[in-house]
What we know:
The structure holds two protein chains of two kinds.
Chain A: H1 32-39, E1 44-47, E2 54-55, E3 72-74, E4 78-87, H2 93-96, E5 101-108, E6 113-118, E7 127-134, E8 140-146, H3 157-160, E9 170-173, H4 179-190, E10 195-200, H5 210-215, E11 219-223, H6 229-239, E12 245-248, H7 265-291, E13 302-308, H8 319-339, E14 345-351, H9 369-382, E15 386-389, H10 391-402, H11 404-412
Parallel strand pairs in A: 6-8, 9-10, 9-12, 10-11, 12-13, 13-14, 14-15
Antiparallel strand pairs in A: 1-2, 1-3, 4-5, 4-7, 5-6, 7-8
Helix pairs in contact in A: 4-9, 6-7, 7-8, 10-11
Chain B: E1 2-3, E2 11-12, E3 17-28, H1 35-50, E4 59-63, H2 72-79, E5 85-88, H3 95-108, E6 115-121, H4 127-133, H5 137-142, H6 150-166, H7 170-184, H8 198-203, E7 206-208, E8 211-212, E9 221-230, H9 231-236, E10 241-251, H10 265-276, E11 285-287, H11 293-302, H12 311-317, H13 333-337, H14 347-356, E12 370-379, E13 384-394
Parallel strand pairs in B: 4-5, 4-6, 11-12
Antiparallel strand pairs in B: 1-2, 3-9, 3-10, 6-9, 7-8, 10-13, 12-13
Helix pairs in contact in B: 11-12
Amino acid sequence: xxxxxxxxxxxxxxxxxxxxxxxxxxxxxxxxxxxxxxxxxxxxxxxxxxxxxxxxxxxxxxxxxxxxxxxxxxxxxxxxxxxxxxxxxxxxxxxxxxxxxxxxxxxxxxxxxxxxxxxxxxxxxxxxxxxxxxxxxxxxxxxxxxxxxxxxxxxxxxxxxxxxxxxxxxxxxxxxxxxxxxxxxxxxxxxxxxxxxxxxxxxxxxxxxxxxxxxxxxxxxxxxxxxxxxxxxxxxxxxxxxxxxxxxxxxxxxxxxxxxxxxxxxxxxxxxxxxxxxxxxxxxxxxxxxxxxxxxxxxxxxxxxxxxxxxxxxxxxxxxxxxxxxxxxxxxxxxxxxxxxxxxxxxxxxxxxxxxxxxxxxxxxxxxxxxxxxxxxxxxxxxxxxxxxxxxxxxxxxxxxxxxxxxxxxxxx
Amino acid sequence: xxxxxxxxxxxxxxxxxxxxxxxxxxxxxxxxxxxxxxxxxxxxxxxxxxxxxxxxxxxxxxxxxxxxxxxxxxxxxxxxxxxxxxxxxxxxxxxxxxxxxxxxxxxxxxxxxxxxxxxxxxxxxxxxxxxxxxxxxxxxxxxxxxxxxxxxxxxxxxxxxxxxxxxxxxxxxxxxxxxxxxxxxxxxxxxxxxxxxxxxxxxxxxxxxxxxxxxxxxxxxxxxxxxxxxxxxxxxxxxxxxxxxxxxxxxxxxxxxxxxxxxxxxxxxxxxxxxxxxxxxxxxxxxxxxxxxxxxxxxxxxxxxxxxxxxxxxxxxxxxxxxxxxxxxxxxxxxxxxxxxxxxxxxxxxxxxxxxxxxxxxxxxxxxxxxxxxxxxxxxxxxxxxxxxxxxxxxx
Lengths: 413, 396
């Protein structure tokens, strides 16, 4: 039985903050096939196209028939834990301060035997489910979970090292004026966040949904304008040392391409919100988060970017907007590299057209703000890194993988 | 003489080939010297013992984990050797046996006259952790990130499974460790020379369950070497020597076993005894590769000293001390002497040569004529991949 997490007490400001460490994260190029699957929350192993053998660890030839047609494919994650051990001495500083640490060998029904971390509720000889997760260093690792969910299982200390669960954490939603920002506030409050800071630019200006937002439990409205460096810095000075998760909901959505516009004013605004805005947030909040990656139950854990799936391929109907989203995505990849040493995850959430006023003329399927918020919370609970929300986002992702050129032509209309 | 083993191919005997001039450079826990220094000391002592000049060494087999960017080739220039036959055997604890196999054939076929089989490793304060994290691609991708418990964690799983399968107890493994410590008490260079009791073994601090402190070897620096040459050459130099009756080698045996409960020896045991022309009962001493006592137990079973799963009963029947029944790891093995990197696979070989030629460092095994030496190495992912063994006999 997993001991439920206790709500962390107020931190003693005189106490030294534990410095973040992470397990060895070097992997062979082939093993990054696991990184790809783990980043999106899938359980995949190499499966031989010629003889169907499923194998592990990652190899460059099938150990049964020597074929090199050995892609990663989804496989059955069920198996039996055949032996476990509790490591009490470790040569690695990350594990050394976390021992005792259990690991074990699982014989998968699909064939291979896999060394994995163990959830506290699994015992030797039992049936288990293996999951692929990203560890504190962003490297792919296996963990054996109980065959069926157990009470408070997300609170397991080993599992929680691999997830970004909002429970008892303090969240900053950067823009609460939008329906998405308000849906996020509700979802994170419901998910057990300790405080949900909601940023509002020019708080004296009223906005729709204001009263409902204020009524949400543990929501605290704060002044924040991502287009104003001073505002962002001030907010970081006030609360930056206790923000564990940033959800960047600041958006600037306008229809139209780039040729038939007058000048660059709108495009500049888009870039100011989406690219420079992210940079301002990164500069103001990033360093403190990176330093607090191992700061107990409510350590800094994730920086979430909400991105149009058209960051991955331009949609000329919203062409300038797509370009700003692409800039934001590129900056987020940079931030991911920069926050990695602190064990803080950068999660990119790609969504299709939203069911909001700025996509009024776009036909369904569309993503409701509530659905997007729910997906973000779940993705953090699972510790994902790349998330696709909604049918359009999934569709674009699949078409991009199949043939980017076809997608480019088809989006051109 | 030729033999026809189970696989149908003939194995040629090692007629006219002997091993001699066993060398051990006394081990230290940490060394600020390099592997090159340790290997140099071993070869220096080897030539002194054999009464030959360094330039007479025309064949070299090198095993080491810590020579950095230098392979055996770089080592020839570093040490000023000009061999006409060279091999680099990076096979961990199986290197000694496999080096012997290579060397014996080279000498037998006239490719070289004096083959020095040498292994040496240094142990800097940080070398062990660095070796672990980059030991193999599978270790990097699929082992080290899981708690970084090193070989201890991997063998803990193998030990746990063996205990579950066959009912062996910690006390059984403890008996082996205690007997080896008794054997080490007369070895001056053993890392651990304090008598060990079963109670101390049982109460030792846990390392990776079910392994406790005295189940684990202590990494150290050291070097081992011996010479392989023709029997008539050894005789003319006045060197006491031992013959090679048979050898086996196997890699990645039984890949379908979910966990290792047998090693490669089990695949080749029939051929092993057939080629040797002796039986397990004829063996006067056994030197196993003892990185962990469970692996010793596998060797008892897989080399045919007892049946699979009966290791615990075999352990309960014998003393394993040098002067007792079934002398085993008579210099204390790695568990008491220390694990000098790749030289761990040569420790039993030099000890067996000494015992068979009546020049033991510690206590003698009375009237020892036949010895079996076994090697095991290279835990790549979840199991040790390489195994080997040799039957050695006193020359005349």
